[in-house]
Write a structure and sequence with these properties.
Pfam families: Usp
Number of helices: 5
Family: Belongs to the universal stress protein A family.
Structural class: alpha/beta
Organism: Chryseobacterium artocarpi
Strand order of the largest sheet: 5-2-1-6-7
Keywords: Cytoplasm
Shape: globular
Number of strands: 7
Radius of gyration: 16 Å
CATH architecture: 3-Layer(aba) Sandwich
CATH superfamily: HUPs
Mean pLDDT: 84
Order of helices and strands: EHEEEHEHEHHE
Protein name: Universal stress protein
Number of domains: 1
Amino acid sequence: MINIVLPVDFGDKTDQLVDGAIKFAKQLNGRIYLIHVAPSDIGFAIGDMGFQYFPEVEANEIREELVQLNKIEQRIISHDIDCEHLLKQGLAKETILEFAKAKNADYIVMGSHGRSGIYDVFVGSLTKGLTKSSHVPVLVLPIHD
């Protein structure tokens, strides 16, 4: 069976990305390993007293993201595709690459909004970073309006 790692960010194009990954997995008789990487600083805020950590904010955010991840997993399973998920805090590129290695991934499926140039300079591109660093093929699906 082909192992496919599918990172999701719960953005407005996530449904399109998941649809593409489902189609790809069906064509290859693949299994999808779903991952969401949450930032490590979710519970931090800057206030009058400087940086403050609010563990309840972090816990609530993680809980909401797990609910979203479970919904996507169930959607994938409803298409008769094996799926399991992981939510982890950390740096996205490194965490995804470690997960892909641990799951013996044959592919990583990512979306691309088609942005380039100055946007990449200031924001960066996770997809671009993964294609440069990954030891397994990265399938980039065009995600446009």
